[in-house]
Design a protein that fits this description.
It holds the Pfam family Beta-prop_Vps41. Its main location: cytoplasm. One of its GO terms (molecular function) is zinc ion binding. Belongs to the VPS41 family. It is a peripheral membrane protein. By secondary structure, the chain is α+β, with helices and mostly antiparallel strands. Among the domains are: about 30-170, YVTN repeat-like/Quinoprotein amine dehydrogenase (Methylamine Dehydrogenase, Chain H), CATH 2.130.10; about 270-360, no CATH class; about 360-455, Alpha Horseshoe (Serine Threonine Protein Phosphatase 5, Tetratricopeptide repeat), CATH 1.25.40. It has 27 helices and 34 strands. Strands 1-28-27-24-23 form a five-stranded mixed sheet, with no helix packed on it. A hairpin with a 3-residue loop joins strand 4 and strand 5 (about 65-70). It starts with a strand and ends with a strand. The model is unreliable at about 1-20 and about 845 (pLDDT under 50).
């Protein structure tokens, strides 16, 4: 709950009750004491009433003075109206006419800028006065006064004032408000509303708590608009709406009536009311009981903002105001006046005038900063940057960074620098030095700008040195992430080399130095370090910077590091490093030489043909599984040399292949049978060669070996007549699985018969289909016109005189002849054939089509 505190400067600040903890809820209003001329007045006099116009203020005092003030409280005009208390001041809407009444019964209505004036002295105190809101107009020269009765004064056409009694007999009139054509006033019994147009009193709202003295707890009236009256009396608030009565309901009733739309009780006594949009501002007089003496005492008045509901209200904010002399004030000593145009609220007490204003965005930011809610303050400033006047986004952001640093949240502070400092290089450098002072350069390093803006090289070097002294990994990360033009590369290179003198095998520093060399275009040194470290980026470095001339003497190192990548790179760049050069470099490392030549052979069987002889030994030594595929695919390797090597090493499969390729199939088959003892492979070999003599040799070799006979019986049925084998089997020889083998032979035979029959059916069906198709084609007509010629005499096929008889022979091959141009058919060959096509074939195209 905010408080208004007295200070020597006259300003009013918000504070909290001593008995209450500080509230986190932001106040809705801000306060300041009206000073300057007001301070001088209230040092010698006491305020009794006040009225507010959009252009100026009018303040009445207990010594009968009326002061006109500007909105800062400076005195612009002074009127000595009476020697006693001024009870009320009234202004019309134009601010050109003012009405004043005092405790000694004096009433004055006069023009502030004209000589127009009304004076009257009554025999009783006049408590209230209200001039017509449109008093400036000649037709609206009216005002009301109230003492023991309510009088309406009207100026007649002869410039004389005529008075009439609107109401009397219910005690003193203590409050009045005039809005449009309606006058509302309060006496001891309640509140009345009078329609000045129809001259009718349209309602009476009775007073609720009659136990309160009306002179000590006066009624507060406030027009929210021309038809809504707000009544505050004691602790009760009523909101009344003036409505038009339906013509059918009038009879003898006024044409308007009042409906109470909301009514509720408050906690304290009401001293003043004012509207604020759809809410209410309530000035309350507070009495509290002392815990020590158990006696009532006057507490600070409260200014509450409430949201009216039909039968209750919701408190929006509540501020306790420390005004001068509040301990001695009564409920009747406080007044609440307001300026509708600017939402200004004036709290008037005998010794003080406090101005309450709606808080703007600057005030909201002030409160957030006071509560150290910098993130919200920064967001609010960004959203409302066009409306704030006292704050700058940058200043709030810098304060936020300082706050985070003070709390030790260095990483968050550094992260916020990106958003707050933006492209201001000078501020960036200032913040970096500030982080250096507190030893937190590492925290800000990830967020430094790396382009637009670019800071001084010294800034980046300073951070790199910080990491180099304590965190090699972090240093390496920055070197990878930061562009090399941010700092002096040679300075950092020298610093890294100095550290390597202490720790020469540190891989992180070596790798980082290689990256620095790369940026400095010192690729040779970088490549050497990468190869030493066996780093995966070595191939990327070579490709990116075309370093093939630098690796001609480092091929072995590259192959040792990653032979697959190295071979791919060398083969992809044969134009830069020749095959011959690579083979020479790998001469002392035959296992690597084999890897290279093998990959070359897989890419192209002919490029390395001069090395195929060498490759035979390499395959035999390091990669026997690929020797046989190599021998099969190569057309350049010497077979004799290959056979020699394979025989020396006893490579049977390779020797068999070479023997068969050299035409010595019988020796190859013999080796399979004698060395491998593999009848299936022997049979497969015989099938591949498709040589009857080989089958004969295979049968002769297998005839005394029952397992081989079984294999032959199972596999030769489709290549050799099984009878040849069966006739040669000795009687009484026990052959394993003979029955199954014979069954398989019969099944294979049946399968062959079925296949032949199936193929025959397909062939007959296809032949018949094609014959029908040919017949349909040959039955179609052939177009013969003047453009066609005889293929024999080359004259037009049709005669010029169509009336003459003629004969034309058209063959299905589309060649045309005059009949007389063809040779006459003989007895031996009665059919005629196309002279042109008959030399090629006597097929279907040569059939004849005769046209007459």
């Amino acid at each position: 709950m905010a408080e208004a505190e007295e200070q020597e400067t006259g300003s009013l600040e918000e504070s909290t009750d001593e008995s209450e903890e500080e509230s986190e809820e932001e106040p809705k209003l801000k306060y300041e004491r009206l000073s300057n001329g007001v301070t001088e007045i209230l040092q010698k006099d006491a305020a009794s009433c006040m009225t507010v116009h959009d252009k100026f203020l009018a303040l009445g005092t207990h010594y009968g003075k009326v002061y006109l003030l500007d909105v800062q409280g400076n005195i612009t005009q002074k009127f000595d109206v009476s020697p006693v208390k001024i009870n009320q001041i009234s202004l019309d809407e134009s601010g050109e006419h003012m009405g004043v009444c005092s405790e000694d019964g004096k009433v004055q209505v006069f023009g502030l800028y004209s000589g127009e004036e009304f004076h009257e002295t009554f025999d009783c105190p006049i408590k209230i006065i209200a001039v017509h809101p449109q008093f400036v107009r000649s037709s609206c020269k009216q005002f009301v006064t109230g003492g023991k009765k309510l009088l309406l004064f009207e100026r007649t056409w002869m410039n004389r004032w005529k008075s009439s009694v609107l109401h009397e007999g219910e005690g003193n009139i203590r409050s009045v408000k005039w809005r449009g054509h309606l006058i509302a006033w309060a006496n001891n019994m309640g509140v009345k509303i009078f329609d000045i147009t129809s001259k009718q009193r349209i309602t009476n709202v009775p007073r609720d708590d009659i136990s309160l003295r009306p002179d000590m707890y006066p009624c507060s009236l406030c027009w929210k608009d021309t038809v809504t009256l707000i009544i505050g009396w004691g602790t009760s608030i009523k909101i009344c709406s003036v409505k038009e009565r339906h013509a059918s309901e009038m009879r003898d009733l006024p044409n308007r009536y009042v409906e109470i739309v909301s009514q509720f009780e408050t906690e304290f006594y009401i001293s003043g009311l004012a509207p604020l949009c759809d809410q209410l501002v309530v000035l309350s007089y507070v009495k509290e009981v002392s815990e020590k003496t158990e006696r009532e005492y006057c507490a600070r008045p409260r200014l509450d903002i409430i949201q009216p509901l039909p039968e209750t209200c919701e408190e929006i904010s509540s501020d306790a105001l420390t005004v001068r002399g509040f301990q001695e004030n009564e409920c009747r000593d406080y007044h609440l006046e307001y300026s509708e145009g600017e939402s200004l609220f004036y709290i008037v007490s005998p010794r003080d005038v406090v101005v309450a204003k709606e808080r703007d965005q600057d005030d909201h930011i002030d409160w957030l900063l006071e509560k150290k809610k910098y993130e919200e303050a920064l967001m609010a400033a960004e959203i409302s940057q066009r409306n704030i006047k006292r704050h700058k986004i940058l200043d709030i952001g810098l304060a936020y960074i300082n706050h985070l640093v003070a709390r030790g949240e260095y990483d968050m502070a550094a992260r916020k620098c990106q958003k707050i400092l933006g492209k201001n290089a000078a501020l960036w450098e200032y913040e970096v030095y500030k982080f250096k002072e507190i030893g937190q350069l590492k925290a800000i390093s990830p967020y430094l700008p790396r382009g637009d803006p670019v800071l001084k090289p010294l800034i980046y070097e300073m951070i790199l040195h910080e990491f180099l002294e304590s965190d090699y990994e972090g240093f390496a990360t920055l070197i990878r992430e930061w562009p090399g033009d941010l700092y002096n590369n040679s300075v950092i290179v020298q610093a890294v080399r100095d550290h390597l003198k202490k720790d020469s095998q540190n891989k992180t520093l070596l790798k980082t130095l290689a990256e620095l060399y790369t940026y400095d275009k010192n690729y040779g040194n970088a490549l050497e370090i990468y190869l030493t470290l066996r780093h995966k980026d070595v191939f990327q470095l070579i490709h990116k910077h075309n370093l093939f001339s630098s690796i001609k003497d480092k091929i072995v190192l590259l192959m040792d590091f990653d032979s697959e990548k190295a071979v791919d790179m060398l083969l992809d760049n044969e134009d830069k490093i020749s095959i011959k050069k690579v083979v020479e470099e790998l001469e002392d490392r035959p296992e690597l030489q084999h890897v290279y030549l093998h990959k070359l052979f897989k890419r192209d069987h002919h490029k390395g043909q001069c090395y195929h002889e060498k490759q035979i030994s390499l395959y035999a030594e390091y990669d026997r599984p690929n020797l046989l595929p190599f021998l099969r695919d190569s057309t350049h390797c010497p077979l004799e040399k290959a056979l020699e090597i394979c025989q020396q090493r006893n490579f049977v499969e390779e020797t068999v292949y070479l023997l068969s390729r050299m035409g010595n199939s019988r020796s190859a088959l013999k080796m399979i049978m004698e060395e491998l003892h593999d009848v299936d492979k022997a049979i497969e070999f015989a099938k591949e060669q498709d040589d009857g003599e080989l089958w004969e040799d295979l049968i002769l070799y297998s005839i005394d070996k029952p397992p081989f006979i079984t294999g032959l019986l199972n596999n030769i049925g489709t290549h050799v007549d099984p009878i040849l084998l069966i006739h040669r089997i000795k009687e009484g020889m026990e052959i394993p699985n003979l029955r199954d083998s014979l069954v398989k032979i019969l099944q294979d035979y049946n399968l062959q018969i079925l296949l032949r029959e199936g193929c025959k059916k397909i062939l007959v069906a296809d032949s018949l289909s094609l014959l029908k198709k040919m017949h349909r084609t040959q039955m179609k007509g052939v177009l013969v016109d003047e453009e066609n010629i005889c293929e024999s005499c080359l004259s037009p096929i049709l005669p010029t005189d169509a009336a003459k008889p003629f004969s034309v022979v058209v063959f299905h091959c589309r060649h045309m002849f005059h009949k007389e141009c063809l040779p006459m058919p003989s007895m031996n060959a009665p059919a005629q054939y196309c002279n042109i096509c008959s030399a090629k074939s006597r097929g279907p195209g040569s059939a004849i089509l005769e046209m007459k």
